[in-house]
Amino acid sequence: MSVALIKLGGSVITDKSRYRSFNRESSDRLAREIASSGKQVILVHGAGSFGHVLASEYQLQKGYLDDSQRMGVAKVQRDVRDLNREVMLSLDRAGMPSTSIPPGACALMESGKLRRLETDLFHRYLELGITPVTFGDVVLDSQRRFGICSGDQLMHLLAREFRPELVVFCADVDGIFTADPNLDKGAKLIQEVDRSTLESIPRTSRVTDVTGSIYGKLESMLDIAELGKGTMVINGLVPGRLASALRGEKVKGSLVVGGRG
Ligand code: IPE
After folding, report:
1. Cα of 47 to ligand 1 centre, how many Å?
2. Are 233 and 254 in contact (CB under 8 A)?
């Protein structure tokens, strides 16, 4: 049975500007939309304000600089596990059997790139009919001692391993835009995104985000799209959109295509 790989962006399940604020309403609704799809799913979620705020304060994305960061590693791991527990509870309420697989305990990075993940665990839980759920986390790094592993890096590795029939990124906007839609009224939704789009997007970031702006995220998405499967970015804050994407319907959003289109 083929798998759908879904990422719930941190901005959809948390308020990114307020430290540790969980958006239970969105999380519960998205869990219901996933559960009612009847699809076999691997779920990844971002960290939002449970990760980015402290991670950037302690500069964890740079790897080990000094011992004072150790408390930061511990706190961020604690916080993202708290968020993960909230998401798991949403899945429980939706009646979807799921298991949490924290990358901090089963992954390894090398110079900031995710190199290894215990994918065997994901296979075995899927076989059991239990949805594996993983998330952006602080992970050990063979060169830098530790680093931030984003949900997007996890999506890429999981897409390589499972070759999902569908890859969906749920964002807090309708898709990829020509400019930041929250700042620029003239920003236009790009319905089909390819590598040439990347060159047209400014390399700036609006919020403090230790895993990069939309630019970095788009790079991961293009790498995934190059694996040849349908990859899309949709608005996870709009009720029903994920559900219809999972039904294979045409929904408002950006389709990410490999190559230059
Ligand atoms: C970030 O993961 C992980 C940490 C800061 C610990 P993501 O980069 O996937 O999170 P979002 O989706 O941007 O919030």
Report:
1. 4
2. yes
Q: What is the pLDDT of residues 120-172, one digit of tens each?
A: 999 999 999 999 999 999 999 999 999 999 999 999 999 999 999 999 999 99
Superfamily of domain 4-256 in CATH is Acetylglutamate kinase-like (3.40.1160.10)
Condensed to tens digits (0 to 9), the pLDDT of residues 69-97 reads 999 999 999 999 999 999 999 999 999 99
Where are the chain's structural domains? 4-256
Q: Is ligand 1 within 6 A of the CB of residue 193?
A: no
Q: Which amino acid is at 212?
A: G
pTM: predicted TM-score of the whole model, two decimal places: 0.95
Rounded Cα–Cα distance for residues 187 and 216 (Å):
19
- Residues 229, 165: contact at Cβ < 8 Å? yes
Helix (H, G, I), strand (E, B) or coil at 43: strand
| CB of 53 shorter than 6 A to ligand 1 | no
Per the structure block, which two tokens stand in for 97?
């059997």
Pocket flag, ligand 1, residue 46 (CB < 6 Å): yes
